[in-house]
């Protein structure tokens, strides 16, 4: 197959008309984890995929549907799949993070994920949740509104998914495993991708390596943007076009116009693109993504691109370079002011139909520092992290160690002894100027500690970035819930002055939010979903270093407030 023909197929598959879906149905999917050879940047390598597709297949359902996915593991690696952003109400056994809610699915085994989508509609995504396998095992989740329920915005002519990803020429499993051994930071990626393709501007890439979005003049397109990259927040822009943000993390937002989007790993954003009414025939515009990064280390500082092409037919551009390619202006790689400005524009729709049910009375308050740290070198100073130590990361100085069995099983069957303890610190263990001069001792504590919450606890959580090894934005992702982002700011959180400025009326509701680089964010959620819920940085290297923890939400008194027993095929460790 010619590369041109392959990109033509990609155009078709991302734009295919959505099937007519009835309500209240069960959607059955089968995910076969298997290898596939793919060529990018002139290198052919074998990658892990679902059903031999890269990026992976679309999961489409309606709000209220039951989703049943049989995952079969045909590869040597252990695998589990997470349905990122799906609330999993009383279905925690289907959430997917390895060693948190399940043991991994081992070679030759299978597991059926069974959950219902309740009170959510929009774009989410699924991805592998073990080690760095999500680098290639990911795909979109599209939740349509119930039948007859319109979008609270203009009906789009067509819908298009844009999956942003990260490409490594090397083997990502070898890269992270070596980094954890030596203590050094892992190698950075070689390219970013849009729908699996890097675009024409890399060494050894051409126009046939660009995802091409064919549009017609004067129409409205719904772009479902997903950041599935491993380690990078991304800026996104389409040259000469303004877009309207209408949804984030499968909740509707008050629409606003912008030329540039900031999207962290783990976030989704739906955009309306109104195409030009009288463009030159066949005119093309670049779609570009580039990282936002304020850390001290090196990062993949490349720009990936796709092509917006005005046409009346779906002809591919072929190998000829299009005649108009002007890159869209993007903020500088460390433009924290832009990020603060952009994220402050995201507000819940907060209408009668889509209310913002922000917890107004708080039962429990938590203050968590998030950031990097170090671990002593076990082999006498030969480590390659800061000053001969190993890189680590933590929440309240606890670097979370994964247990060798799943937390949810240990909790449910009351076998927590030797698996986890319930003394996760409510506040930082020692105070320092979190965004000023770091303490002399930056060593973290390795442990598996959780917070236990009674059913229906309303929680306020302040996440504070630290300057240890450099200030950095940490996109924190909470499983099992959405939270409301009631406040954010720079420097250290002030528990007296800052709460008076909280937005309790229309704060954005999401499952992942970037803790501002050198700042803090305050979120609220109601712990009304019994189970064990992971919370972690969605920058994969930080998660590998331990920037993760778990909440246990106890059963309530009523029968419909309890976690049911596990399915019989739940994998064993
Ligand atoms: C990938 O390519 C290698 C070398 O050409 C080949 O041995 C292998 O069977 C291929 N794998 C798949 C899944 O096609
Ligand atoms: C999925 O779970 C529901 C209960 O929530 C059950 O009725 C159904 O049989 C399950 N389906 C499969 C395929 O396990
Ligand atoms: C695109 O925007 C640039 C400025 O950024 C402008 O010079 C150019 O004329 C515009 N092109 C079209 C086709 O609108
Ligand atoms: C636009 O592209 C199509 C397909 O490649 C071609 O047939 C047509 O002549 C082009 N039109 C113009 C005005 O360049
Ligand atoms: C990243 O690339 C941009 C150009 O795309 C350049 O201006 C900037 O200096 C680079 N930053 C780093 C840290 O390499
Ligand atoms: C961004 O990086 C540039 C070059 O490294 C530096 O001069 C500038 O001060 C930085 N800006 C911010 C806001 O940190
Ligand atoms: C925020 O962005 C808008 C454009 O989207 C701009 O007009 C405004 O000046 C920016 N505000 C700040 C404080 O940078
Ligand atoms: C390494 O140690 C020196 C002094 O021993 C100190 O000045 C420096 O900040 C340390 N560097 C890091 C990255 O911790
Ligand atoms: C913390 O450090 C920052 C940055 O150096 C400084 O601006 C601020 O005044 C310090 N805060 C306190 C309370 O010392
Ligand atoms: C850190 O070390 C410096 C120099 O050794 C010392 O002056 C300072 O008091 C120490 N700071 C803390 C918080 O221990
Ligand atoms: C903590 O765990 C990490 C990751 O397994 C390991 O590299 C590090 O050496 C451990 N630190 C201590 C103090 O045991
Ligand atoms: C797969 O998971 C099982 C259960 O946790 C573990 O015993 C085994 O070592 C893992 N295998 C690999 C290849 O990681
Ligand atoms: Cu992080």
TrEMBL record:
One Pfam annotation reads Cu-oxidase_3
Q: Kindly list the GO molecular function terms attached to this UniProt entry.
A: copper ion binding; hydroquinone:oxygen oxidoreductase activity
EC number in record: 1.10.3.2
Does Signal show up as a keyword for this record? yes
| Superkingdom classification of source | Eukaryota
The UniProt entry, under InterPro entries, shows: Cu-oxidase-like_N, Cu-oxidase_2nd, Cu-oxidase_C, Cu-oxidase_fam, Cu_oxidase_CS, Cu_oxidase_Cu_BS, Cupredoxin, CuRO_1_LCC
Localization per record: Secreted, Extracellular space, Apoplast
Q: Tell me the SUPFAM superfamilies matching this sequence.
A: Cupredoxins (SSF49503)
Cofactor section: Cu cation
Q: Which UniProt keywords apply?
A: Apoplast, Copper, Lignin degradation, Metal-binding, Oxidoreductase, Repeat, Secreted, Signal
Q: Catalysed reaction(s)?
A: 4 hydroquinone + O2 = 4 benzosemiquinone + 2 H2O
Q: How is the cofactor bound?
A: Binds 4 Cu cations per monomer.
Q: Name one GO cellular component term.
A: apoplast
Can you supply a Gene Ontology BP term from the record? lignin catabolic process
Q: What is this protein called?
A: Laccase
């Amino acid at each position: 197959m010619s590369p041109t023909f392959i990109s033509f197929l990609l155009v078709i598959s991302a734009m295919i008309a959505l099937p007519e879906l009835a309500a209240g149905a069960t959607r059955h999917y089968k995910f076969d984890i298997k290898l596939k050879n793919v060529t990018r940047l002139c290198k052919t390598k074998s990658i892990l995929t679902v059903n031999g597709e890269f990026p992976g297949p679309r999961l489409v359902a309606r709000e209220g549907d039951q989703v049943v996915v049989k995952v079969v593991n045909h590869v040597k690696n252990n695998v589990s799949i997470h349905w990122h952003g799906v609330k999993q109400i009383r279905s925690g056994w289907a959430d997917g993070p390895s060693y948190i809610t399940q043991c991994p699915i081992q070679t030759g085994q299978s597991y059926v994920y069974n959950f219902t989508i309740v009170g959510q509609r929009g774009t989410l995504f699924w991805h592998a949740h073990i080690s760095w396998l999500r680098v290639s095992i990911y795909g979109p989740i599209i939740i349509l509104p119930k039948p007859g329920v319109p979008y609270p915005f203009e009906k789009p002519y067509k819908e298009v998914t844009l999956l942003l990803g990260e490409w490594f020429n090397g083997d990502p499993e070898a890269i992270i495993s070596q980094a954890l051994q030596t203590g050094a930071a892992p190698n950075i990626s070689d390219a970013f991708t849009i729908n699996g393709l890097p675009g024409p501007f890399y060494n050894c890439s051409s126009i046939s390596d660009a995802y091409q979005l064919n549009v017609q003049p004067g129409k409205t397109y719904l772009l479902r943007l997903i950041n599935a990259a491993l380690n990078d927040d991304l800026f996104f822009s389409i040259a000469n076009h303004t877009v309207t943000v209408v949804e984030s993390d499968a909740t509707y937002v008050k629409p606003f116009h912008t030329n540039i989007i900031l999207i962290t790993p783990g976030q989704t954003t739906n955009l309306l693109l109104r195409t030009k009414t009288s463009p030159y025939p066949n005119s093309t515009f670049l779609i570009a993504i580039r990282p936002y990064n304020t850390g001290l280390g090196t990062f993949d500082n490349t720009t990936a691109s796709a092509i917006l092409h005005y046409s009346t037919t779906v002809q591919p551009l072929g190998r000829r370079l299009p005649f108009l390619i002007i890159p869209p202006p993007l903020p500088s790689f460390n433009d924290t002011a832009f990020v603060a400005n952009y994220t402050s524009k995201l507000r819940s729709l907060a209408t009668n139909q889509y209310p913002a049910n922000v917890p107004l009375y708080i039962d429990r308050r938590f203050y968590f520092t998030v950031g990097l740290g170090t671990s002593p070198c076990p082999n006498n100073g030969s480590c390659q992290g800061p000053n001969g130590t190993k890189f680590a990361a933590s929440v309240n100085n606890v670097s979370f160690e994964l247990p060798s069995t799943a937390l949810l099983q240990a909790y449910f069957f009351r076998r927590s002894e030797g698996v986890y303890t319930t003394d996760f610190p409510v506040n930082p263990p020692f105070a320092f100027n979190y965004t000023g001069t770091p303490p002399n001792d930056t060593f973290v504590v390795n442990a598996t500690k959780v917070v236990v919450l009674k059913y229906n606890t309303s929680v306020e959580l302040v996440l504070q970035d630290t300057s240890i090894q450099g200030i950095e934005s940490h996109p924190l992702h909470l499983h099992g819930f959405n939270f409301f982002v009631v406040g954010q700011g720079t420097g250290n959180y002030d528990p007296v002055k800052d709460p008076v400025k909280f937005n309790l009326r229309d704060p954005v509701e999401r499952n992942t939010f970037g803790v501002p680089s050198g700042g803090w964010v305050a979120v609220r959620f109601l712990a009304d979903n019994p189970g064990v819920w992971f919370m972690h940085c969605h920058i994969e290297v930080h998660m590998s270093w331990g920037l993760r923890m778990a909440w246990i939400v106890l059963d309530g008194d009523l029968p419909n407030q309890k976690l049911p027993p596990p399915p019989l095929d739940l994998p064993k460790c």
